[in-house]
Design a protein that fits this description.
Blueprint (H helix, E strand, L loop, with lengths): L13 E4 L5 E4 L20 H22 L3 H30 L2 H29 L3
Antiparallel strand pairs: 1-2
Length: 135
């Protein structure tokens, strides 16, 4: 066997004959290969990264708006909105980590993130309602 033909480290299904007279195994081109533990349709998986990005942008926006207001109540309202956005970010990150990896460790970490994110959303919503005068 020539020195350039290395032993196969991966299990591939297609064989191609190289010009060096050794068999090289080529992986099949499937997008599911690049997503670990994917089962079927992955079109739903794009939702969570989009939610994560937009909630992070909203968090930064509300934090900057909070620092620009001079009134105490307006600052607190912007802080409550930022808290809601941060909670949405943390919860979506937890869900995404479980959906992407689907392991027991990812489930535990995702559950912790989801609970913390939900707590941020609930407490931020209560604070915003209290500051805006709505019951």
């Amino acid at each position: 066997m020539p020195a350039h033909c290395l032993p196969d480290l991966f299990l591939y299904t297609q064989h191609v004959i190289s010009p060096f007279s050794c068999t090289v195994k080529v992986p099949p081109l499937e997008w599911r290969r690049f997503i670990p533990h994917s089962k079927g349709d992955n079109s739903v998986m794009i939702i969570f990264p989009i939610v994560i990005i937009f909630s992070l942008i909203a968090y930064v926006y509300f934090k900057v708006a909070e620092s620009r207001h001079a009134e105490y109540t307006e600052r607190e309202k912007q802080g409550a909105k930022a808290n809601i956005s941060l909670g949405l970010f943390i919860a979506a990150f937890g869900i995404n980590s479980y959906v992407f990896y689907q392991t027991q460790l990812a489930a535990v970490i995702g559950l912790i993130f989801f609970v913390l994110g939900t707590a941020n959303i609930v407490l931020g919503t209560r604070k915003y309602k209290q500051l805006s005068g709505a019951e």
